[in-house]
Amino acid sequence: MANGSPMMAELECRRKPITWILAVTCLCTVSYLLGAWQNTSNALNSNVITSDESNKIGCAHTSPSFGSHSLDFQAHHQVGLNESLLSSVKFPACALKYSEYTPCQDPRRARKFPKDMLVYRERHCPAKNELLRCLIPAPPKYKNPLKWPQSRDYSWYDNIPHRELSIEKAVQNWIQVEGDRFHFPGGGTMFPRGADAYIDDIGALISLTDGSIRTALDTGCGVSAKYSQGVASWGAYLLKRDILAMSFAPRDSHEAQVQFALERGVPAMIGVMASDRIPYPARSFDMAHCSRCLIPWQQYDGLYLLEVDRVLRPGGYWILSGPPINWKVHYRGWERTAEDLKHEQDSIEDLAKRLCWKKVIEKGDLAVWQKPINHIECVESRMVYKTPHICKNNNPDSAWYRKMEVCITPLPEVNSVEEIAGGAVEKWPGRAFALPPRISRGTITGITLKTFEEDNKMWKERLEHYKRIIKPLANGRFRNVMDMNARLGGLAAELMKYSVWVMNVMPVDHKQDTLGVIYERGFIGTYHDWCEAFSTYPRTYDLIHADGVFSIYQDRCDITYILLEMDRILRPEGTVIFRDSVEILVKIQSLTDGMRWKSRIMDHESGPFNPEKIMVAVKTYWTGEPSPAQ
């Protein structure tokens, strides 16, 4: 057939469009790659938070700068949001009377609930029509908290202007006002020589320095402002021994002791032994402590000691000081009869025996019991002790609005009396990166050794990236850190080298409950539903990490209120790291722009092709305005 035939001409015409399409596609691809590379370089070099000025305590406040370049995701991505969402809503400041507002522990709302078993001091959150749609203000003279470790002993008076506690506790050497600061000498009702010496006394009875005890629970931490050890000094001085204590106490009427603890940089949260389980998984704490916490251990069929038993690790210790221990010496000062105190101690001793606990020692003002490492002998002892019985059909980790039960939480089964139920954990600090028993035993579906190792590797890369884009992370600017969706606790593990502690939060709706894994690694945390307010005071965290949180909750509740809650608990000039899809981050940014936050959206640390993006936001410094009457 001739070359100039109509058929060949038709084929040639078909080839030309295909060639042009391929050429244009290649050019577009190369252009996109070059642009993405350039944007990523700009993001890494210029989207950096610097806050040198804000590190100068008491000096002028300078909002951190992100640099002049940013990634314009609103322009380059079709988000599909309602345009009204992208226009910033301006949130007003709440009245100054809300400066210490705790939504789910509001004393005014608490009056509506029964006082029996302290139910009125449990969580009672506002109804939807009662939610505040405003920003909680800082006190008028608020300053950035002092850096750790100075903050352990001192805090600014203007940040928590309550003189009541220092006046009431003057004799006990708890807290003193010195000019414009509070001073925390470390004293307490049961440790007049100071918390440090008191802990040394405990250390003479059980080992506190060999790494076998890492997580501790301080029950009460000021349950009565008149009598308890107060302001979490026990937890503050345990930190120098590499022991991390979770202190909890109910919302005070005016003394705000949990707030003092967090202001000092000591882990604490609002909570109470009442009718609900405390929000921690089973087998979490290596040690639990009560120093004149005034919890009625022997009442309600031993309900509260059974709850301590639930959260204690096998072989864990319970330490009790104050009434009724050493009652023969103290009963006159305690203004109680010798008979009453003897009956109370006998009841506690009997209950501990029925829980299968062993009394290790009683010396001076201290008594120590130990939980068994497994329940082989305890199950057999039910032939002798009919009560309390072993719980049945019970999820031991379920602890969110779950009522306490008058039964012994069963330990995992073992094959011999020497085996530790649920598996042994390594000593600290090796424990942080050792494979947790809950994973090695396959008790969490879908999480394996490989998952754990990959998660550790991912967090190492993430933290290196965070250090590049958030300069204050490595220079001591942050102390109290919250991970709103902690997963396996990788952030807490990678932050070990810094002077920070992390409140690891496990959303109650998460498909995989890994909070027990976090405790096995030697870190602390709590269960929480982010559709409700967190159990803390305003301005108690320096850095908040929100990984996929809004993907979890966007269809469950109004994310506006989650962001307002984050603003409530974040300190002025505090930082938030969001990780989520572009669509969600753009929506978040449209709201935070109206909350006096500054923010930037940037690419994932792996580059522009990862659909997950990062948004870093900083809450600017502002305070409430006093009324003329004030």
UniProtKB/TrEMBL annotation:
InterPro entries noted in UniProt: Put_SAM_MeTrfase (IPR004159), SAM-dependent_MTases_sf (IPR029063)
GO molecular function: methyltransferase activity
UniProt keyword terms in alphabetical order: Glycoprotein, Membrane, Methyltransferase, Signal-anchor, Transferase, Transmembrane, Transmembrane helix
Membrane-topology descriptor: Single-pass type II membrane protein
Pfam families membership: Methyltransf_29
Major subcellular location class: endoplasmic reticulum
EC number(s) given by UniProt: 2.1.1.-
The species this protein was found in: Platanthera zijinensis
A GO BP entry: methylation
Family from the record: Belongs to the methyltransferase superfamily.
Entries under PANTHER family matching the protein: METHYLTRANSFERASE, SAM-DEPENDENT METHYLTRANSFERASE
Name listed for the protein in its UniProt record: Methyltransferase
Compartments, as annotated in UniProt: Endoplasmic reticulum membrane; Membrane
A cellular component term, taken from the record's GO annotations: endosome
Taxonomic superkingdom: Eukaryota
